[in-house]
Amino acid sequence: MSALDALLDLSRWSAVLGMHGMDTAALFGLFGHFLLLSMLAVGGAITTAPDMQRYLVQEHGWLSDAQFSASIGLAQAAPGPNILFVAVLGWNVAGLAGMVATMAGILIPSSTLAFAASRWLGSRRERLGVRAFTAGLAPLTIGLLWSTGWVLATPVRHQWSAWLLLGLTLLVMLRTQVSPMWLIGLGALVGAAGWV
């Protein structure tokens, strides 16, 4: 085997990159799927979590529901940008190569579009059509976030204590000025105690 053939031997790179046995076709499929999701991520990448869950958990079985939810929870608890959950999902699916595939897929199109759109909208923000389009994105974002919450609650949806905690959180958020961080901490304590 020549040096070039050895360099191009993807089975060797699979082990080096920690691809968990994933072949390059599946890796390109992962990249392509996140590339498409990038263009649907109105309100942030978290709004596309339901389709990520469908693709990674239901369609391919690369992660379980619990692994999927834990990946998002871990990334959201860590300091830094919220989009880190995409990197954690990619890492759990196919190691370093999966992390690069998911992050490149989710960042390239949306970043390019955001840059181009912000330049175009800069001089047109007061036009009626632009204002209507911007206002129309709000209910879309709320719906996508609602569906994300529903998917992330899959492992505990059948527990009455989870519904009680959800109701308490909603009530506190609507009626008080308490920081959401306290409610997240309460949820962590309830989960650590095994009540949810």
TrEMBL record:
Main location: membrane
Transmembrane region(s): 25-47, 68-90, 96-116, 128-152
Cited InterPro entries: CHR_Transporter, Chromate_transpt
Keyword Metal-binding tagged: no
Keywords for the protein's UniProt record, in alphabetical order: Cell membrane, Membrane, Transmembrane, Transmembrane helix
Subcellular location: Cell membrane
Membrane disposition: Multi-pass membrane protein
Domain of life according to the entry: Bacteria
Assigned protein family: Belongs to the chromate ion transporter (CHR) (TC 2.A.51) family.
PANTHER family per the UniProt record, alphabetical: CHROMATE TRANSPORT PROTEIN-RELATED (PTHR43663), CHROMATE TRANSPORTER (PTHR43663:SF1)
Name of the protein in question: Chromate transporter
Organism whose genome encodes this protein: Sphaerotilus microaerophilus
Organism ancestry: Bacteria, Pseudomonadati, Pseudomonadota, Betaproteobacteria, Burkholderiales
